[in-house]
Specification:
five-stranded mixed β-sheet
């Protein structure tokens, strides 16, 4: 029974992270040896004191706001976090996201970073002083909340069924 409870808790948090993640995915090109700033946006409010971690593919933690504040800029008004990477190497090519920690961990948008050896694009790479305002889409929010509640109900239902089977097997 204890094993199922552990699996259920992990499944619960996975459902939370999946259904509360921000729906966008950006692709960014960085130049070998240069610096770049990645922008992550949350669909919930953040503050200057929010606990935020930066993760790569497979939820491998690479940094957090608590230990290296100089690599982060937070814009609570736009629910955005900027993460600065210096001296890019080919190993920086990856998909990144930010996780906001609290009662429920919340995943930001994902940013896929590609590293090129020389600049073949003519786009500016400077970070704006303040990120643009983002309008939330109420329909997507309603669909995501409904999907989350349905997933949560499914997890609870499976736990109840298993618990009832355990009680019957004892008798």
């Amino acid at each position: 029974m204890a094993g199922l409870c552990s699996v259920t808790v992990l499944l619960f948090w996975a459902v939370i992270i999946v259904w509360t993640e921000y729906p966008s995915h950006a692709q960014v090109i960085g130049i070998l040896g240069s610096n770049i700033t990645l922008q992550f946006t949350f669909n919930v409010s953040i503050t200057e004191n929010s606990q935020i971690g930066i993760y790569t593919t497979g939820f491998k933690k690479i940094d957090d706001l608590k230990s290296r504040k100089s690599f982060f800029d937070i814009y609570p008004r736009n629910n955005s976090v900027f993460y600065h990477i210096t001296n890019l190497t080919l190993s920086h090519s990856n998909t990144y996201c930010a996780i906001l920690f609290g009662a429920i961990p919340i995943k930001s948008n994902e940013v896929q970073l590609f590293i090129e050896e020389k600049n073949t694009h003519s786009t500016a790479t400077e970070t704006p002083a303040e990120p643009p305002q983002y309008n939330s889409n109420a329909v997507i929010t309603v669909i995501r909340v409904f999907a989350f509640i349905t997933s949560l109900a499914l997890v609870v239902g499976v736990c109840k069924i298993y618990h009832l089977k355990c009680i019957k097997s004892r008798n």
